[in-house]
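lol ok so funny story. i was supposed to be doing the assay writeup but got distracted and ended up predicting the structure for this chain instead. priorities right. anyway since i did it might as well share w the group, maybe its usefull for someone
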Amino acid sequence: MTLGIDIGGTTINFGLVEGSKVVKKVQIPSFPSKATLDDTLLYLGDRAELLLIPSVEKIGIGVPSITDPVRGIVYNAVNIPSWDVVPLKDTMEERFGIPVMVNNDANCYALGAAKILEKNYPTLVCVTLGTGTGVGIVLDGKVYSGTHCGAGEIASIPYNGKDYESFCSKKFFTAAGTDPKSMCKAAENGDVRALDLFNEFGCHLGEFLSVVMYAYDADCIVIGGGIARSFHLFKDAMWDTLSARYPYEKALEDLVITPIAEEDTALIGAASL
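and the output, tada:
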């Protein structure tokens, strides 16, 4: 049994995980914006302690930040002002006396997706479409992080005067004065503007996935995050653009692109570190 922890800007999810199943889950508000580092670590540890039954052998934590996955240090965590340099692994291991693993949340999502799919893809890349755009890479069942946990930061590559994240996340819809959830509902009711917006989104995503393929030559790309629930609305435009931009037909013939909108994906991945 493993305790998985998925830290977000709004909520923190805790789950007792066996394999790819969450046996018990608890969700609490994330850290107050003015909380000190000591306050946040105490808050996190106290909640974790309530779930640490005797059969828990390790803790896995996903953080929205660059991390050192070997030493378990978190750097400049997004939406957690007091988390500049945090020795999270050492702090939690000192308190609980069991192994603690720490990694980026997108990497955890990718690892969780690999567990949920229950198929051994040699190169699986997970692209999460949410407030931002995250990319996690799983090679032969193991997360590939890079030296500073930045191997998946390719959504920051310049694109259309901004970067890919600006066009492949909620930011795209915000710039159009709306949000993906309401546009999804409108599109499913036949609204032309909403359908056109998702078609445009799919084109941008197809451009980004061509970069993913050039970088990683994936045989499976998982589309995750909240916008993955609207996959059917942008799938065709995504594939059309990807096929036009990426020249290696054999690779595209073998490529599987599948959505996973399971809300516990990152939690399962954190527990699998």
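The chain has two domains: 2-107+266-271, 118-261. The mean pLDDT is 94.
back to the writeup now i swear
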